[in-house]
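Why do we care about 3D structure at all? Because function follows from shape, and shape follows, mostly, from sequence. That is the central idea of this module. The next example makes it concrete: a single protein chain, its amino acid sequence, and then its structure expressed as C-alpha cells.
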Amino acid sequence: MNRFSVCVVSLAAARLVLPVHAGSLTGRVWDPTGAVIPKAAVAVVNVESGARQSATTGAAGDFSLQGLPTGRYDVEVSAPGFQQYRRRGVLVAADGEARLAVLLRLGEVMETLVVQAQGAPRPPAGPTRVRVGGNVQAPKLIRQVRPAYPQGPKDAGLQGPVVMRATILKDGSIGELTVMGGAEPLLAAEAENAVRLWRYQPTLLNGQPVEVLTTIEVDFRLKP
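And the structure:
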C-alpha cells in the first residue's frame, strides 16, 4: 500500500469517529403562583427529522435533555390540571445549552346540566352541540341552581344546548359569563340567570385560591 492510499484510509477512519455536533435543552417548570411543578412531562421534536425525545421534571421542577442534534425543536410540556405549554422552533446550537422557563396555566372546569320537560321536540335544523376541547380540571360545584324550562320555547318544541364560558372567582362565585352563539335566546337567558347563582368551592393552587375558566353546558331537552 502506497503513502497516498494510507492517507485516504486514515481520513476515512477519522470521519467515522468525528462526533456529531450536539447541544442540550434545559429548563424549569412553574405554576402561576411561582412554585415549581415536579413530574411534568416534557417532549421535544426535531423540526427537520421528526425525532422525538422526552423527559420528566424532577422535584425542583427542572428538566434536562442532553445530546440533542443541532437544529430547531418544538417543545411541549404538560401536567395534570394544567393547560399544555407549546413553544415552536427553539434553537439548540452545537455544543451549546438552550434554557427555557416554562409557565403552566391552570386547566379548565367543565359542567354539563340537562333540563328536561314534557313536550314534542321540533326536529333540529342542523348540528347544535358545541364541542370545546382543552384540559379538564375536576369540578368543585357546591351550589347548583337548576333553570326552569321556559314555557314559550317548550310550547314551540324548541330544545338544544346553551354553552357558556365563565370565570370562577377566588371566592367561588361566577364572574364574567358569556353565552356562546347559536343558542335559542329564551333558553340562553334562563340558563344564564340560573348559572350566575352557582357557587363553587374555590380552586386552590398550593393552598391559595385562584381564578379558573369554566365551560358550562345547559342542555334543554323535551321528552314525549
